[in-house]
């Protein structure tokens, strides 16, 4: 019963990691298409005039687009999380249906994979959060423009890109990435607990085997002593 609950918890977390990763991948693809392959993360730019009004405003100028590697890394980390979570979810569901716990080697390998994925997703989440904050600071000139970053997406920035949904897209991306990271963090902790329990069970089994050998050896030793006494 305890094993079933543990496997069920793992299965739910894997499905959550899969769902959150899917939430990340779709908006990232859409944003890459809207921005024609440019990455807005860490983009540097400025308004030629700090006084931006509805009636008259200057054009926003990009001084340097963000490094494409920032968006690509986040996309690759999300795709890896999507694939690994989907595979583990199916395998855990299979174990749950069969009532199979898995070997110690599988538990250890599962822990290493989970730790690797949670590390990658954490880096991707940090890159996206920091990079998008810098983009919002650029388009709002750190709050000096009388519009929020969310309101800027309703304005045509005339950058030869479609910026009509960038804020909504990256709000979903950040939600999905941090949700994915939290799900993988829980899975990593659960995998560690499983490895720890397996180690304790192995140690207990070795101890019981040793005690059994000692108990079996005692009658033989007693019999030898009796035979020795009889000879004397």
Q: Mean pLDDT, rounded to whole units?
A: 81
The SS-based structural class is: mainly alpha
Largest sheet: 2 strands, antiparallel
Helix coverage percent: over 70%
Structure description:
With 232 residues, the chain is mainly alpha-helical. It has 5 helices and 2 strands, in the order H-E-E-H-H-H-H. Strands 1-2 form a two-stranded antiparallel ribbon. Helix 3 (104-140) packs antiparallel against helix 5 (166-231).
Task: Offer a few descriptive terms.
single chain; 232 residues; mainly alpha; two-stranded antiparallel sheet; 5 helices; 74% helix; elongated
Give a concise summary.
With 232 residues, this protein is mostly helical.
Set down the secondary structure blueprint.
Elements: H1 2-34, E1 39-47, E2 60-66, H2 68-98, H3 104-140, H4 149-152, H5 166-231
Antiparallel strand pairs: 1-2
Helix pairs in contact: 1-2, 1-5, 2-3, 3-5
